[in-house]
Amino acid sequence: MVEWVRRASTPLRASTATLNSPRGHEGALLSLIFLLLYVRSGGAGGPLLGANLVCARGLTDRQRAMCHAAPAAVAALGTGLSMAYKECRAQLSGYRWNCSGVGDGAYFGHVMPLATREAAFTYAITAAGATHALSAACARGDLPACGCAHNSKLSVQRRRGSSPSSSDQFQWGGCGEVAFGARFARRFLDARELEADARSLMNLHNNRVGRKVSETVKELVRRECKCHGVSGSCAVRTCWRALPPFAAVARALRERYRRARRVAAHAAPPPRTAFAAHVSLAAAAAAVVQPHLVLRRYRPNGVGRPPRKSELVYLAPSPSYCEPDAAAGSPGTHGRHCNRTSRDEDGCEKLCCGRGYNTVRVVKHVQCRCQFHWCCKVTCDTCLSRTETHVCE
């Protein structure tokens, strides 16, 4: 039985902002992410076939060279992108913008077209996912370019039949090279940002934040051990360093997303020393500082400080995300489930944008109070289960 209860609608208070159009190079990045994810699911062809396919499509020369040189690392990077988009949806499931259409379906690999805080979060969590997946693949020994000298030494000892010394009673497996993952992710993902404009500066900054957060979480690396011995004894223990779940990285980025700072591109004047008498005009022109990001100030001629390396940054205010708007990357909130008692982002008042919501009550028969009777029968009672959900109009 399904009962619909209509709640009185309230006036719509939010509006969708009209912002700038997407940049041209974002389309190339869509193909890049799609093909990177194809690497991991390439089937019997292995990562080399998938990497060759990636390298055949509209990449920069530097990215193409990395594809050919490290196909296994490119495969791991593609896995990290898929993991990042999945975790993005999990972390923002109760928000108006919940990563819908990012990396799935017809919008597979979609990048937010506007330079909003949502775009900042997308770039940061993508870079963090790539770093995390590459680090995990390195720790498992899946990447030929990433090794661990200590483990190689132990492997040689075992092959030669030599017994480990007292200092080697705890045998470490894997290498936990988080630095390798961050380095490869930076070289590959940052190579896409060829323009020296404000959006590229924003993307590069947020990529760096994602990598740094993923690297910082390495401090939470935990040691896991497995005992080997007769009758459960622990005569020999094999231990390894295990990376924490990627959800820990995503939660840290979500907090930075909520505190993201709005910035603007600023070109500082050349240093005073550049105008000394012994300096030519050409040298003075060359001394002009390249544009960089500063916190946006709302007073005339106000120039803010550069953003901190731990802060996510964005250039344009976010739309309301209340109504569908393909140009803004907004699927709208119609039909979304909300929490009637919550005053947070997932509350019906905020999530439904003041349009009101419908209450759906479902009553069904389920088995309950089941008991096992020797031997061999299970008997259950029949109970009524009542559930109530709330759906935005």
Automatic annotation (TrEMBL):
| Record keyword Lipoprotein present | yes
Pfam families registered for this protein in UniProt: wnt (PF00110)
**InterPro entries from the entry?**
Wnt (IPR005817), Wnt_C (IPR043158), Wnt_CS (IPR018161)
Highest taxon in the source lineage: Eukaryota
Task: Kindly report the protein's main subcellular placement as a broad class.
Answer: secreted
Per its database record, what is this protein's job?
A: Ligand for members of the frizzled family of seven transmembrane receptors.
Protein family per UniProt: Belongs to the Wnt family.
Name of the featured protein: Protein Wnt
Source organism of this protein record: Galleria mellonella (Greater wax moth)
Q: What is the lineage of its organism?
A: Eukaryota, Metazoa, Ecdysozoa, Arthropoda, Hexapoda
